[in-house]
Amino acid sequence: MKNKLTLLVVAMAVAIQTFSCKNGKSDTDLAKEEGVESPSLEEQLYRPYYHFTPKVGWMNDPNGMFYYNGYYHLFYQHYPKDNIWGPMHWGHAISTDLVQWKHLPIAMYPDDLGYIFSGSAVVDYDNTSGFGKDGKIPIVAMYTYHDPKKGDAGQLDAQTQAIAYSLDEGNSWTKYEGNPVIDNPGIRDFRDPKVIWDQERGQWVMILAADFEMMIYTSKNLKDWTLADRFGKDVGSHEGVWECPDFFPMQVEGSDDVKWVMLGSISGGAPNGGNGTQYFIGDFDGQKFTMDKNFEEALAKKHDFWVDFGKDNYAGVTWSNIPPQDGRKIFIGWIVDGHYANKVPTTTWRSTQSLPRTVKLISDNGIPRITFQPVKEITNYIGKKSKKDHVSIGVDQETVLSDGDFDFSKAQIQYSIASLKDKGYTFKLSNNKGEELLFGYDGTKNQFFVDRRKSGKVDFHKEFADKVSIGPRLSDKDLHDADILLDKTSIEIFFDNGETSMTEIFFPSAPYSKLSVVSENGDLVLDHLEISQLKFN
Ligand code: FRU
What we know:
Blueprint: H1 7-22, H2 27-33, H3 39-46, E1 57-68, E2 71-79, E3 89-95, E4 102-108, E5 115-123, E6 139-146, H4 148-152, E7 159-166, E8 174-175, E9 190-198, E10 203-210, E11 213-219, E12 226-231, E13 242-251, E14 258-266, E15 276-284, E16 289-291, H5 293-301, E17 314-318, E18 329-334, E19 349-350, E20 357-364, E21 367-374, E22 382-393, E23 399-403, E24 411-417, E25 424-430, E26 436-442, E27 447-451, E28 469-472, E29 480-487, E30 490-495, E31 500-505, E32 514-520, E33 524-534
Parallel strand pairs: 1-19
Antiparallel strand pairs: 1-2, 2-3, 3-4, 5-6, 6-7, 7-8, 9-10, 10-11, 11-12, 13-14, 14-15, 15-16, 17-18, 18-20, 20-21, 22-33, 23-32, 24-29, 24-33, 25-26, 25-32, 26-27, 27-28, 29-30, 30-31
Beta-D-fructofuranose binds next to α1, β1, β5, β9 and β13.
């Protein structure tokens, strides 16, 4: 087990460094140094059309997401006073369709007990907490307090768990006077509680990350918690501390089986280096989590149970209280890597959340796996479309699929290829500045890839574009398909119906306007290609 610095320590160190060199410089000066001419150019070039970003200041993990009364709520780790990590608040936004977001005032500020670190929120319909009043249903948030004084002094007990409640649908929050509800048991990294209602047992279940494992607690009232299980000490990757877990039951597609899915972000050792999110699947009896036998065997052979194989998808968790008639499990992640998050070339704000994704649990020849697909609501934004069938692609020669007809800074690309065997392909998105973003499939290695080495501004951090990112092909179907969503600074690729997802960010100096493709190891036919312009202003 490598003893790596935690993301937090890195973030704090960079924060102090960046803060000291910021003194005396305007945003415009800084923007120039960072390679864009002015904050307004930065807005035009880098502010995504439809991915959530904070209006100003720093953002990291998504927090406390719940659905209530027609609104999807999104909270997030936020430092409003600077574009780098700092004393954590919970920012707040709402949406009626998971695509367009309205900013709301900051929901929670740091206080005497510490910074407000990551956590979750649930609608307490039965008022088990007793916080409800005059028939108003309480929303209860559970989060980690990080006491910076203790943390800086190297004390182990800086992190504790706390709750707060809202009686006005998440707009204003009252912190519980009995906080913290879980004291620190002497574990330095002890954080990010994710609460869910366990319907079968009629209890609340909470999972949190504790150093290099997960701890599972149960409660009847959201205030008194009992430790039920610990999981993960000898399982999965431990190249960084574990953070931001999630834990929920799901029905296996096409069967009546229900399995529990555990997500766990890890601050190092992801497939392409840096931060990533691994997962585990098994059974939960209300107290203990046991890995599924087939899953366990597959994990022991090869660890390819990652939420995303791109460099940029971290700390992702799912929404609470999605209505049963909807029935989806909806996930959102922070799309940057913690190692360069403080360095990306935006100045007035920093960081982006992924497009919310629908999680599914499938059985892949008896091995349970999760898949991700973009939420269906994105299709409401489709404008003009081009559809082509049976496009012949010559080997080693570029076939132009679109040149100038689409603005790929807001677009969806979908394709399918019936039979590839050991052939491969490379798609290229490019602009008139000679910048290009490549993605595709290497048939000889059975691997997908994303290559942003020449995608635009890449020199702000040495780990941003030092190599091509690789993702294994997990599906064994003949048919290859992909669903790709593009915004100004991000690509999210869902290969094989989301069995392999890859998310990466990039910073071009002009939108990509051309799409071409080349095949390797023989000619191939793109059986179907669809390019859609997304309608956002
Ligand atoms: C993950 C994380 C969490 C923590 C939060 C602090 O990115 O380190 O574990 O709660 O960020 O902002």
